[in-house]
Amino acid sequence: MNDKEINGKPVSQQPCCGIFSAAIAMGKEPQTVFDSYKKMFKKSSRWRGSTYTNELKDFLTNKKVKWSPVKHPRWITVKKFADMYAKPSGVYLVWVSGHVMTLYRGELIDQWHHQPVGEAKKNRCKIESVIQITNPKPLLDGLVCESKTEYNNRVKETKEKQKTEREDKIRAIVYSARNRCHLSRVLKEKEVSDEIDLNKVVSWQGRNWRLVGYNSRARKNPFVLMLMEPSMPGSQHFSPSYEYYGCACWQAIREMFRFNELFQDREGVAA
């Protein structure tokens, strides 16, 4: 767990494992390391922190970080390496497929996790390369080691928070008075106000939908659809679902209301 940021965004939401590992090895904030790496290798403004193994090693050397390669058996896991080859007080950068982590005195750290290596999430990954930092710095402030239970609880809370935020965003879209007003105007212009009943639920492509709005900013699929789910399996009574919402073009809307077989009143009474 950490509170570090790069360009105002949490490192846990960015592909910056190499930068984060270098920051731990150098004892500097990730933002400082990010800026230095970007300048040294002339990265573009779109670069978000991804690194190459040899580039990162060259960067560490350039910044006076002393390191030495570590020999290890082929296909050994991070956990076995920590148990059998790593020094208890040692600091290592460990490369696995598409990722790099820091083994810091028995704790496995990357931008997402910070746990004892024995129970860390990625401790079963196969090692591709390892270097030992021979002049390690004190661990950065704000990095907190978590137990497996603490980590799982944090992940659960984060997922629940993200789900709530997503549902709130979907509610704002499907209940938008502006989109509803635009929809009424568009249907009148197309002279189909009587043909399309906005109080009905229609079945289309295996899902149940209700037409609720028109997003004038969307070019390809401006019509907004609210997902409706049965109150129980096999029921003809529906209620809104905020798992996601739908978007459709005019041709799809005409098809939905022309060929659908399931209609239902807004209150949930089958028509």
SS strand fraction: 15-25%
Number of helices: 7
End-to-end Cα distance, whole Å, is 53 Å
SSE string, helices as H and strands as E: EEHHHEHEEEEEHHEEEEH
**What structural class is derived from the secondary structure elements?**
alpha+beta
Radius of gyration, CA atoms, in whole angstroms: 27 Å
Give the tally of β-strands. 12
The largest sheet, given as strand count, sense and whether it forms a barrel, is: 6 strands, antiparallel
Percent range of helical residues = 25-40%
3D architecture notes:
This protein has 271 residues and is α+β, with helices and mostly antiparallel strands. It folds into two domains: 142 residues, no CATH class; 86 residues, no CATH class. The protein contains seven helices and twelve strands. The strands form three sheets. Strands 3-8-4-5-6-7 form a six-stranded antiparallel sheet, with helices on both faces. A four-stranded antiparallel sheet has the order 9-10-11-12. Helix 1 packs across helix 2. The chain starts with a strand and ends in a 12-residue tail after the last helix. The C terminus is likely disordered.
